[in-house]
Each structure stands twice: as C-alpha cells, then as structure tokens.
C-alpha cells in the first residue's frame, strides 16, 4: 500500500496511517453529493476494490477530512496532522472538492453577477 500517489505526496507512512485508520474504506459521508444511504451513510469503496463494473482497482487518497480543507494549497495540506485527514476514493474526493470550491466562490461573491446593475 505504501508508495501510492496522494494529494499530500506522502512518502513517510502518513498515507498508510490514514488508510489503516479508515479500515481501507472511503470515509465520505455524503459531502460528495451522494447520500451513500444503501451503505449505512458511508461510501462503500475500499482500497484495491472496484468502484464500478469495468473500472480498475481504486487507490484511496489521504486528504483533508473537511471539504474546505480540500481547497488548501499543497504546502498547507501537507502540513496537516493525521487527525485532520481522511481516506477518500477519487470520485468522492473530486466531487466534494468541486462542491467546496463552488460554495467558496458563492461566499466570495454573494451578490452574484448582477451586483453592478
């Protein structure tokens, strides 16, 4: 399991510790936009398993547990302690990051495009 690429660029065992703490399963609980209701509210994807028929094995990512943390610059994300990290499958990670970015953009411009008129 070690040596796999992660958003944190881990080479020190942090990735392994995060994935082990998650029991090798994605820790998303719906921040990606899916309810994961069929699986007890948690994404069913496991490291090395298959997300969908016809796809290759999934490599979980170690990244910020909170959606806003997924938007941090790489140097700040790399400095996060293990307790602030979670295991993510690529699909949930990317969807949660997109949702957080949209929310951040909406917060930055609450008036919207018609603010000048």
How would you concisely characterize the structure shown here?
The chain has 117 residues and is of the alpha+beta class. It has one domain.
Number of helices: 3
What's the β-strand tally? 2
First-to-last CA distance: 55 Å
Helix/strand order: HEHEH
Rg computed from alpha carbons, rounded to a whole number of angstroms: 16 Å
Tell me the helix content. Answer: 25-40%
How large a portion of the residues is in β-strands, by DSSP E?
5-15%
Regions with little confidence, pLDDT below 50 for 5+ residues: 1-6
- The computed structural class is alpha+beta
Question: Major sheet, described briefly?
Answer: 2 strands, antiparallel
Coarse shape: globular
| Overall pLDDT confidence | 85
Strands side by side in the biggest sheet: 1-2
Task: Provide the domain count.
Answer: 1
Describe this structure in words.
There is one protein chain. With 117 residues, the protein is of the alpha+beta class. It has one domain (14-106). The protein is 27% helix and 7% strand. The protein contains three helices and two strands. It has helices at residues 14-21, 74-78, 90-108, and strands spanning 61-64, 85-88. The protein has a two-stranded antiparallel ribbon with strand order 1-2. It is globular. The model is unreliable at 1-6 (pLDDT under 50).
Quickly list its features.
about 120 residues, alpha+beta, two-stranded antiparallel sheet, 3 helices
What is this structure's SSE topology?
Elements lengths: L13 H8 L39 E4 L9 H5 L6 E4 L1 H19 L9
